[in-house]
Amino acid sequence: MSNQTLLEVKNLKQYFPIKGGIFGRTVNHVKAVDDISFTVKEGETVSIVGESGCGKSTTGRAILRLDNPYAGEVNFQGEDLLALNKSQMRKKRKDLQIIFQDPYASLNPRQTVSQILEEALEIQNVVPKKDRRKKIVELLETVGIGAHQIDRHPHEFSGGQRQRVGIARALSVDPKLIICDEAVSALDVSIQAQVLNLLKDLQREFKLTYLFISHDLGVVRHISDRIIVMYLGKIVEIADKKSLFTNPQHPYTKALLSAIPSTDLSQKKERIILKGDVPSPIDPPAGCRFHTRCPYAFDRCRTEEPQLHHIPGQVQQSACHLVEDGAVDFSQLKTNY
Ligand code: SF4
Q1: What's residue 319's pLDDT?
Q2: pTM of the entire structure?
């Protein structure tokens, strides 16, 4: 991993309008992503985790401008992607690729694997026409699919093989950053491990950078260098993998970690069950957005929004009033329920 920043997301907001009334005016917004900032270095794997609806996939789509963001900056190699026009952005997409959760839905069922990959190569015009067949065979072999399967259709492959085709398609244009949006969530556990190992091998071979989006901390643990935890459109913690798993500094992270099944039967693990549902992103709670479910909430949490800050003496960042003066051991604190 280099020290060079590849991607810098600054004050990104993604608000979706809610229309109402007889004139169809905007009456409110769904604040799916609300003022988040983070960086990704070249060669790094940064994961974004959180429950469904926290804004992690919306962040990935906003970076790629699959949905144009409401506000903020997305600097890629120092260039603001949000300032590019459509044709400039189309060219830039060569460097930023995405792998989706459901490879079956993202691969055209009428096309053969060869046609799917040829289309990707043609759009970005990265390989001369006469060399494309050779390149397609190379790509498929790189992701573990034999050349004899080149003329098969997506339905003739297993889920894991289809995801390998999705990876080959992303790789075909020599990208710098790949956003993996729940890329292994639909696969069986054993196949998940194979695909994660493949992604790691490809990262080394092609010097790739990953933004890995997942609800599954077990998966994230396998692949990440750093982890961003999101709750209701906000970043609540950013930490390197070791710090996050051994010394979480946000009550929400702690609750997520407590839900991972332990493989060590001798270790008794206390599961933290959060109260209630995630509130609506249309009208999020005042103060700390997590206060309605946080077992450590106190008066200040209900009125003052905690800012994401570096914890004194720690490398990680947290958005919690309790860690303003230094790291805390949440298990030693009294809970409200
Ligand atoms: Fe809990 Fe308060 Fe920290 Fe929010 S700021 S996570 S409510 S203790």
Answers
A1: 98
A2: 0.94
